[in-house]
Amino acid sequence: MVSAGLLKVAVLLSLAASGALGRSIPMSRRDTAASGFTLTGAAAPDTPLTLKIALTQSNPSGLEDALYDVSTPSSLQYGQHLSKEAAAAYVAPSSDTTSAVNSWLQQNGLSATTLTPAGDWISVETTVGQANELLGASYNAYTHDSTGKQVYRTLEYSIPDELESHVAVVHPTVMFPKYSTLSPIVSTRSSKRQQARADVSSESAAASCGSTVTPACLQSLYGIPTTPATESSNVLGVTGYGDNWANKADLKSFLSKYRTDISSSTTYSLETLDGGSDPQSSSDAGVEADLDVEYTVGIATGVPVTFLSVGETTNDGELDGFLDTINYYLAQDSPPQTITTSYGDWEPDIDEGMAVNLCNAYAQLGARGVSIMFASGDGGVSGVQSKDCTTFLPEFPSGCPYVTSVGGTTGTNPETAVSFSGGGFSNYWAQPSYQSTVVPEYLKYLGTTYTGLYNASGRGFPDVATQAQDFEIVTGGSAEPVSGTSCASPTFAAIISLLNDELIAAGKSPLGFLNPWLYSTAASALTDITSGNNPGCNTNGFSATTGWDPVTGLGTPVFSKLKTAAGL
């Protein structure tokens, strides 16, 4: 007997041969190019174009169930993280899907290269002319106004209707790249910070914070230990994009000044992707990369730190870089136990299919025991950076429920929400189960304020917070203070990596996906932040208050309590 799957493929081949696959369904469209891009003209038909195609995943809901099983402290499977193969199996496309898509490509003289262990992403080398025919598209050349970079995009595309259940996303199509979407703000020393600390006694934990944040400040404020980690297998990954490079001489100077108790030769390991590099002249030093490396190496004492420099030879902006980054880590047999990223985008600027696919990839890595942190953004309720808006703009990937979003605080007596701390509610993802108690409490407190400006049923973010204002760094050979949730994410990631070191040393599993643990066992290990707000979109934004809030999440860390919550 002929199986149903084989019969379906045979029918597709027959339809393709007869031309019946000419009917198409629209996948995505937009009215105009993204802000900041100018139409140059129609793209030449012979222009080379690499298409990346996301195939429909077989069992994403099963992946979510497995993720929560291994990440929820009350579960019998807690800490029993999946292997690479087991995690990939949940998102591997069905044989019907793979065969149908490959048949479609072959009928058009094309072949695919598999990009992921699960086979859910493939790439196709083609030309603009053929892509126009294949996708019912009209690719044009667009120039980014501030950088002069040129990209090829279409404002709409379609696929044969018989492939509707087999293809999730084709890229690049309607999504335009962002360049340097989330960068720390070089700042003067804050009068607010000085005032907040004016009455702090020399005996208190905050006494070492002074007018700027240093490693000693964070260590005293959050009780972070200075004893070196011992487990070489426990790695902290830092990602970098947009030619923003870390500088080893800057790190050496930073450690010489702010971590005199460890060797100033302590450094990071370099990994590269998409033609990434890490030039070491002082003029090439990047503020973002220096910040991220200095406050991971400088806080996570003795933890091996890797800096992944993602270039742009096979992608054109951070979103493409995000996709290649997660696929790079998924392909590794032993990815870092902790990863921090200080870049992001506005959620509405990302096609929902692409956003969901990336979020599922984070779930896959989380199920394997990796803790993934993203900065929550620096525009308050306006998203990644300040922007004119009529409704609140959630940030991506912070809106993804499978990552830990880190917001920002300032001051120490007490800590308050910093005004730029990104936070809000996703329009793509519903409220996750781990927020089922705390988010409704905040919504009750909020009442009818801002009704219609945000999605009250969406996943709320951030999840936690740390200091984010006036971090002292060394970049290009000079010391200067910077601010942003770019400061907070590597700080929290460094704390998690130290906890993972102790867990592994004790023969236990690393923490993995953090949120179910944070919202249950570890909730009491965080200091609730109850004042401050995050203005944006011509409003005062959300307010911090007792309990979880979309400004500082559950609060800031207390290392000793987190250690207890981790079972150490």
From TrEMBL:
Cofactor: Ca(2+)
Signal peptide from the UniProt entry: 1-22
PROSITE patterns: SEDOLISIN
Top-level division of the source organism's lineage: Eukaryota
Binding site for Ca(2+): 528-529, 547, 549
Localisation per UniProt entry: Secreted, Extracellular space
Pfam families linked: Pro-kuma_activ
Keywords: Calcium, Hydrolase, Metal-binding, Protease, Serine protease, Signal, Zymogen
Active-site residues annotated for this sequence: 288, 292, 486
SMART domains, alphabetized: Pro-kuma_activ
Comment on bound cofactor: Binds 1 Ca(2+) ion per subunit.
Family annotation (CDD domains): Peptidases_S53, Pro-peptidase_S53
Domain Peptidase S53 residue range list: 212-568
InterPro entries, sorted: Peptidase_S8/S53_dom_sf, S53_propep, Sedolisin_dom, Tripeptidyl-peptidase_I
Name the record gives this protein: Peptidase S8/S53 domain-containing protein
